[in-house]
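Is adenine placement plausible here? Inputs below.
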Amino acid sequence: MRIDILSVLPELLKSPLEHSIMKRAQDKGLLEVHLHHLRKWAVNEYGQIDDYQYGGGAGMVMMPEPLAKAIEELCAERKYDEIIYLTPDGENLNQRIANTLSLKENLLMICGHYKGIDERIREQYVTKEISIGDYVLSGGELAAAVLVDAIGRLLPGVLNDETSALFDSFQDNLLAPPVYTRPEDFRGSKVPDVLMSGDHRKIEEWRHEQSVQRTRDRRPGLLDES
Ligand code: ADE
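Reply from A.M.:
I modeled the complex. Tokens:
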């Protein structure tokens, strides 16, 4: 999979992509991420890409011209399955969306800043708008990093058996069960007996029950969705 990201602060995206599973995905050639600095398509030699908003009000808006030029240049090179704008008023990201996007080949992500991007870019180019939660970030970069991570770890071959995404929280609309490691007795608190029993069928049953219980307690709405 190839992901292109348009941003005025591509530096913000570098570190999350250079470590751990995202690094492994790229090293294995399963994921390619290309960062593009929007100033490359600025409207003048001062690197301008934003301007005051019509109608007045605080905050700058990202101009349509640099974004349109950048998108058109990138789209001339390849066909994107989705052009995604990260924005707090987009559809809330969930595992289903991550699963669907992980099946695509080329994604283009646009990170907004300031008051956001000119509405006409959203109307004319963007095919999907995604929010990573009901709060406002300073820009779309951290949201894009979250989205790339959520998608990248699902690509076949990125995770090994030990870290398999099949058993992640949300894959069946269930939260993950509790997990334990050594020592067996931590300051008087013991690992549940069933996990020490060696009976794999019983262990799976227990894990499933715990998942259902945890989901009922913490996120009952998820059970209605399944
Ligand atoms: N940009 C600013 N806040 C955001 C959010 N919550 N999700 C996605 N993009 C954003």
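Short version: The beta strands are 2-7, 32-37, 50-52, 60-62, 82-92, 106-111, 128-131, 185-186, 189-190.
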